[in-house]
Design brief:
binds zinc ion, 51% helix, alpha/beta, 13 helices, 310 residues, Rossmann fold
């Protein structure tokens, strides 16, 4: 499960969701987008945000509720996913019955109805009343590739959020591809020297190119974090490396790497010294990936030295 900031694209939607989460989130949401747009990741993240009990931005990824969501053990997140099959009226009735029961853990209960457009009309009619007047603690997330297949009465009870079609990230500077490949494959194998070689190729360029290199690395580790969800990669050119990373590192480490590369990109604004960038890029990434016991993450070192905060 990823935080909102790590989900790809959809910047306008993220703003809308953050605003809604800070105010009064609609109790019935229809999230639609074309096949492969990552609706499952979005549904999980929105549900985690609604159930999160941490402080700051939701989902915080660290509270007990977020940890249960990450481990797929949250008792108040109910998934209805019947795959390619039609969703029938019995399922809709079970949803109604379940919605009448108070949450187990906290103050909210979230139902995610995947492929909601596969509900037949009896199921949709059975769901109408609870969608119209849900108990105060219940939130419904419906995802659908073809929202037009839903009855108008269902659609009118939901707040509609639209997901962008999946798109690949073009690499404007092809000369960065090979060092990025060297860096990422060495990172997947835990070889610091190979990482240094790749970092050298990425860091010797000017500031703008270095920032583009960090965007490529960010996208690659985000692709790796999303590999298991079946989401198509944004950087198909680095698909082999991202799959290797997904097999080698946990999602938490991949996201820490994402933050590391983002921080370096921001620091390039004030510090363009290539040898330092190269060393910090490789050493920091190695430390995040393979030296978890050392409590000296690059981010902390940078902050201590007056750098930016994450
Ligand atoms: Zn949380």
């Amino acid at each position: 499960m990823l935080g909102l900031e790590h989900l790809p694209g959809n910047d306008a939607l993220k703003v809308s969701l953050r605003t809604a989460l800070h105010r009064r989130f609609p109790q019935a949401v229809l999230l639609s987008g074309p096949e492969g747009c990552g609706e499952s990741d979005w549904a999980h993240t929105i549900a985690a945000a609604l159930l999160c009990t941490g402080s700051g931005e939701h989902p915080c990824m660290t509270c007990a509720s977020c940890r249960k969501m990450a481990h797929q053990t949250h008792p108040d997140f109910i998934v209805i996913d019947e795959g390619d099959s039609e969703i029938k009226v019995d399922t809709a009735r079970r949803i109604r019955e379940e919605a009448a029961i108070l949450p187990n853990d906290g103050e909210r209960k979230v139902f995610w109805i995947a492929h909601a457009d596969r509900m037949n009309s009896s199921a949709q009619n059975a769901l109408l009343k609870v969608l119209e007047e849900p108990p105060r603690y219940v939130f419904f997330l419906l995802t659908a590739c073809q929202p037009g297949a839903l009855l108008q009465t269902i659609r009118s009870r939901c707040t509609l959020y639209q997901l962008e079609p999946p798109h690949t990230t073009p690499i404007d500077t092809p000369e960065l591809l090979e060092p990025a490949r060297i860096f990422l494959s060495a990172l997947a194998r835990g070889e610091e020297y190979g990482m240094l070689l790749g970092a050298n190729g990425l860091a010797k360029a000017n500031k703008a190119t270095f920032q583009q290199a960090m965007t490529i690395l960010c996208t690659a580790v985000r692709d790796a974090a999303l590999v298991s969800s079946g989401c198509p990669p944004l950087l198909p050119a680095l698909a082999t490396e991202t799959r290797a990373l997904a097999g080698a590192l946990t999602t938490a480490k991949l996201l820490a790497l994402y933050d590391h590369f983002s921080l370096l990109s921001r620091r390039a604004e004030v510090n363009a010294s290539a040898p330092i960038q190269c060393a910090v890029l490789a050493a920091g990434a190695y430390q995040i990936g393979y030296a978890p016991r050392l409590d000296t993450s690059t981010s902390k070192l940078l902050n201590k030295n007056g750098g930016n905060t994450i």
